[in-house]
Amino acid sequence: MALRPLDNLPVTTPEKPKKPNKTAALNACDCRVNDENTVPSAVTDPSIEYIDSEHLKSLPDPATNIESLIERLDSKNWLEVCEALNDVRRFALYHASMLIPMLDKIMMLLVRSMKNPRSALCKTSIMASADIFTSFNHLLLSPSSPSTPQDEAFDHLLLQLLLKATQDKRFVCEEAEKALRAMALLAPPLPLFQKLEPYVAHKNLKVRAKAAVSVSDCTAKLGIEGIREFGLAKLLRISAEMLNDRLPEAREAARKIANSMYVAYIGEEEAKYESWENLCTSNLAPIPAQSMIRIVS
């Protein structure tokens, strides 16, 4: 019990300090509330600009830029790497001969940028690969059997493009699909066929589907001589297997392959449809053979 003071004044109890409002405190320190029902705002970097190939300009001093290109592509500063990737694109489009001695190193550094979790680096490196396909399509794949450092670099680049084409990030996926189309349309078809063959049986069904699309693009321009060189029966079996794939994209690619083969095959055969039917039944089991026959009937 509090004692009354001698001057007979009432006893006053000091007020307890109020607790600060949590929401106000969060707003004051500019902290973000983790609300799963709130749509996160898109974070964009205004310093990154994705430039279409037709809008890229040539380098004013390519000789100076080429000296530091590898070093800049290997930089720890991702903004510097993005700038260097755009320079790779300019070299490929306007000063292609200067890149040839270091093309294998350039492709391996592109692969590393594609693996980077930062989307700007990933997309810019994919755009650079498409420009490399445009300018170096006749040099990227050698038909000879001993593999070169450039062939090995291309193997890594092809795998990364197939993986990026299966990404959930739509703008990365679309850019990778564009690069794969450029590759299929511009690279020598027969060596590219041999590079793509393992991927149409890949354990990742999305990678299988993207590889099947590239194979169908190649088949359309291969011609009967190229098909025979690759292996007519082998390509028939690949197409028949993909007809039963789980993804509709792979099944549609298989139908396109079958139609391209049929058009190329009957162009040189006298028996026309009958010869195609005999070809299918002699190289495939009865059920797959009928599936392939029905596609073109």
TrEMBL record:
Coiled-coil blocks: none
GO molecular function, one term: microtubule binding
Domain TOG as annotated: residue spans: 52-290
Signal peptide: none
InterPro entries membership: ARM-like (IPR011989), ARM-type_fold (IPR016024), TOG (IPR034085)
One GO process term, biological-process aspect: microtubule cytoskeleton organization
Protein name as it appears in the record: TOG domain-containing protein
